[in-house]
Design goal:
Elements: E1 7-12, H1 20-33, E2 39-42, H2 45-50, E3 54-56, H3 64-71, H4 93-104, E4 107-114, H5 116-131, E5 137-142, H6 158-175, E6 183-189, H7 196-200, E7 214-216, H8 224-237, E8 240-246, H9 278-289, E9 293-298, H10 302-305, H11 312-330, E10 336-345, E11 348-356, H12 381-387, E12 399-400, E13 403-404
Parallel strand pairs: 1-2, 1-4, 4-5, 5-10, 6-8, 6-9, 7-8
Antiparallel strand pairs: 2-3, 10-11, 12-13
Length: 413
């Protein structure tokens, strides 16, 4: 076994998931059990590290109950950030500062839990380590509800978000049938360029639910006029129509549908425009042109923080990728991201592996075209078969006074 000489540091970055803290526990517990001397946490990722906002995790995760609570706690326990490191060739100052801090803390292993942008951070830091002959090992731990990370079969966080979306879609469909009155409901689901989350709404279709009537993913250009005609036709046939749309659907000229109405100018450090208002725009258009009762429902951040309905498969795999990253780094690996490889669908068997982070960073995985139907308004059985194993089983929250108990960070040093 590779000799552990220095300390460990771990951070979380980007949008959180319902199971991202299970990956943090996987890193922490595996590093502790394998003999790491100190395990530090970055508060608010690399941005916090640059400000030396670092804590000794052993003073905050004190016992097995804390570990079990943290696995079940949504959001990012250490806090997150959307900080973009500059290209090394353009500005080395942040790198010099980061590596000075890591040296002061005697860090030998660096773990970053995140999605595409976080893997970009790992890529740049591992490149700078090579450039400066640093022995620090940098490993990426995957997470994102969007499921758009390349190379991995799926991403921890996606299964629980899919389970939530399918469950709520079933409940909304049931609610739409309450009154003897025709209505149309538009569900707006996260997904900027990839429709994995919106496609998960199709899981609502089962023996006790007819499922949503249509799904629109950002992989297919969105035609507002065609959409309106389809809704109008369905409205003539059914009392209640339910349609799920990705927040990132675009019309043919490249504009987001949400930009057809009141748009927002907010753009994050990675150039991502805040998307909201797609369902509202479409529901108002339907109300005005079709003349029926409409509702717009934005699932928004609920998709990533609903820890009361996590998938046991998902939370278990989130823990496993954290542990696998530590094992690989302790054995000498660096500049890699842990991936999940599906061996079988029935019975479902998935294992961890490693992948060069340079081939992952900034590469988006979208839904294959043949997993979307010919008319572009639903997903195929191949998509359903892919997602269904990821939502299986549950992990019951630890309840206190009728509510889920969480572990949250408090200053103790």
């Amino acid at each position: 076994m590779y000799e552990v000489k220095g300390n460990v540091i771990v951070g979380q970055s980007g949008g959180p998931t319902a199971v991202i803290n299970s990956s943090l526990v996987g890193v922490y517990k595996t590093a502790r059990d394998r003999g790491a001397r100190k395990i530090y946490g970055m508060l608010h990722g690399v941005q916090g590290l640059l400000e030396e906002r670092v804590v000794d995790l052993s003073k905050h995760i004190a016992n097995d109950l804390d570990i079990e609570l943290l696995k079940r706690t949504p959001s990012a326990y250490l806090g997150s950030c959307r900080y973009k490191l500059p290209n090394i060739s353009e500005n080395q100052e942040p790198y010099i500062r980061i590596f000075e801090i890591l040296k002061k803390l005697d860090i030998e292993y660096f773990f970053y839990i995140g999605g595409n942008d976080s893997m970009d951070t790992i890529k740049k830091l591992s490149d700078y380590a090579i450039l400066t002959d640093s022995k620090i090992r940098f490993m990426g731990v995957p997470k994102t509800i969007d499921n758009d990370l390349a190379a991995t079969d799926h991403t921890p966080g996606y299964g629980s978000a899919a389970k939530y979306i399918a469950s709520i879609t079933k409940e909304v469909i049931r609610d739409g049938l309450v009154y003897d009155q025709q209505n149309v409901t538009i569900l707006e689901i996260m997904g900027r360029n990839a429709g994995w989350l919106t496609g998960a709404a199709a899981l609502a279709k089962c023996e006790d639910c007819e499922g949503p009537d249509m799904l629109f993913l950002p992989e297919i250009p969105f035609d507002v006029d065609v959409f309106m005609k389809k809704v109008e036709d369905l409205h003539k046939q059914k009392k209640s129509v339910v349609v799920a749309v990705s927040e990132g659907v675009k019309v043919a000229d490249g504009r987001y549908v949400c930009e057809l109405t009141d748009s927002t100018d907010y753009v994050d450090a990675f150039g991502h425009r805040q998307l909201t208002g797609t369902a509202r725009y479409l529901s108002l258009k339907i109300a005005g042109e079709v003349g029926c009762k409409t509702r717009a429902i934005e699932f928004n951040t609920l998709q990533r923080c609903a820890s009361h309905i996590v998938s046991r498969v998902d939370i278990t795999e989130a823990y496993q990728v954290g542990g696998a990253a530590v094992k690989a780094a302790f054995e000498g690996e660096t500049g890699k991201m842990v991936i999940l490889k599906r061996l079988f669908n029935d019975p479902y068997i998935c294992v961890t592996d490693l992948y060069d982070v340079h081939k992952v960073a900034n590469v988006e995985k979208v839904v294959p075209r043949d997993w979307i139907n010919r008319t572009g308004d639903y997903v195929t059985q191949d998509f359903i078969s892919y997602v269904k194993p990821l939502i299986q089983a549950e992990l019951t929250p630890i309840m206190t006074d009728g509510l889920p108990r969480h572990l949250y960070y408090t200053e103790k040093e």
